[in-house]
Structures are given as structure tokens and as C-alpha cells.
Design brief:
Helices cover 75% and strands 0% of the residues. It is mainly α and 159 residues long. The termini are close together. Helix 2 packs antiparallel against helix 3, helix 2 packs parallel to helix 4 and helix 2 packs across helix 5.
Length: 159
């Protein structure tokens, strides 16, 4: 039942991402806090809770994004399950390892999302794609450290 504590965490991250972070954009790119929150929850919860929280985070992002509906819900669910499997094989309890994992997931998420856009006929120029890929990956990895420590604090308080 510890996973229920992460539901408000995901909801607040989503609200923060669509409101406050619009001020903090760097070249019109902002970090993906929902991806970080979903990943942190995936490290500290069971598989069922990780999948549920991944669905919630993906749905929350789909509601506020302009892309095809359901893409983020599907991808976040897959990322959360992959993180649960990865967390069982290696320890992701270190901030540097978590930030590196987030960087890889963010880059893969950006690539897969742009491939879906291409499939639906929405062409994104190479320059814009590379700017989003590099900046969003770096910005999200940098933002992952304080959010991971917050998720760790929630985990420790729920014991």
C-alpha cells in the first residue's frame, strides 16, 4: 500500500510541469518531470504499483500534450516495467546511476515519440529534433536528482 503515497507525487509533478516550468524553458525545452517521477516510483514500488503509476503519469502527460493521445500512456507503462526489471538486477539507489538511467530513457522516449509523430504525418525537422533530444535529455537528467531524493524521502517515511 506504499504506492498510494506516490499518486499525489505524480499529480503534483504533472501540475508543476504544465504551469511553473513554462517559465523555466531553455530554447523552448523543459524537463520531463512526469518521466522522472514515474521512474522514481518504479524504483521504490512493486511491479503492480509501478505499472499503475506509469499509466497515471502517461495519461497525465497525454492530457496536457499536443501529440497523439495514448502514446505517452503506452511508453510510460513500458518504461516503468523496464525500470522495475532493471532495479531488480542492478542498484539504482545512487543519484548518478539514476540520472544516467533517466538520460537514456529520456533519449529513447524522445526518439520513439518522434517516430510516432512521423508515422502520423507530423514531420519534425532534424534541427528541432536534435535540440529537443539533447536539451531535454540533459535538462531531465539534471532535474532527476532532487526529484529522486524526494521520492526516496517518501519511501523512507512510508516504512
Amino acid at each position: 500500500m506504499r504506492g498510494i503515497l506516490y499518486v499525489p507525487f505524480i499529480i503534483l509533478l504533472g501540475l508543476f510541469q504544465v504551469s511553473v516550468l513554462d517559465i523555466c524553458k531553455v530554447w523552448n525545452v523543459k524537463p520531463d518531470l512526469l518521466l522522472v517521477g514515474m521512474a522514481a516510483c518504479g524504483v521504490y514500488t512493486s511491479s503492480a504499483w509501478a505499472l499503475s503509476l506509469g499509466l497515471l503519469a502517461g495519461l497525465w502527460k497525454d492530457i496536457f500534450s499536443a501529440g497523439p493521445f495514448g502514446v505517452n500512456t503506452l511508453l510510460f507503462s513500458l518504461w516503468s516495467l523496464a525500470l522495475v526489471k532493471l532495479a531488480r538486477k542492478i542498484s539504482i539507489d545512487n543519484y548518478i546511476i539514476f540520472a544516467g538511467t533517466i538520460a537514456v530513457i529520456t533519449a529513447l522516449d524522445a526518439i520513439l515519440t518522434r517516430l510516432v509523430f512521423l508515422y502520423f504525418g507530423k514531420v519534425v525537422s532534424l534541427g528541432i529534433f536534435l535540440r529537443i533530444l539533447v536539451l531535454e535529455t540533459a535538462y531531465t537528467a539534471a532535474a532527476s536528482v532532487p526529484l529522486f531524493s524526494l521520492a526516496k524521502m517518501i519511501h523512507e517515511k512510508s516504512r
